[in-house]
């Protein structure tokens, strides 16, 4: 059965971005549980930023699961990517993501690689940069396998990455590099920019999809843009997708209203 999740940013120095709940762990978990979400997706400063036992207790208390952990803080706060020309920075990026993998694995949750994939820049070809990405992901895949979880890779839209922008190119990249323990993140916001046909792409690449981000065409909660959610929901059901659909959307018009809008739309299409 498809499960619902809501995003929670726990980095106090940040206050803008596509996360519904912010900063307060217990209050956010309480609200998520009361609204009927199945889990939460966390964005934290690092893998050691939270006490795992405390988080486990809180999740159990509110009847929630950890859906996934984001790694983007490695890029936002430390400037780390897997494709940086500097091998030392790439090494630090791998170490950071490994810490996030190990943290999430304590809850059976995967880590997500989005912005930390980086970009290719002047003086480097796309092929060379994709080679660096494949090297980094291959090493991280081993860590994930050892920890008993998959790793999630997210194709981003052209304004955020010039590497891999569609589910099809992501699937081909994973297959070409024999990355069998890595799954794709189907982010509906990015897909609205890049995909010719969202339902077709979801069905065609179904076996590679391991996580879905639930956001409308304008990155607001579903129902507040022009995404044809009915056809997307039908495609996910046809594909027998059974993972999380997680609201990585702006908290518009407020976190509480965005959360209510999200669960309303989730129930409309998946319950």
From TrEMBL:
This is Sugar phosphate isomerase/epimerase. The keyword Isomerase applies. Keywords: Isomerase. One of its GO terms (molecular function) is isomerase activity. It comes from Algoriphagus taiwanensis. InterPro entries: Sugar_Epim/Isomerase, Xyl_isomerase-like_sf, Xyl_isomerase-like_TIM-brl. Signal peptide: none annotated. It holds the Pfam family AP_endonuc_2. Residues 29-268 form the Xylose isomerase-like TIM barrel domain.
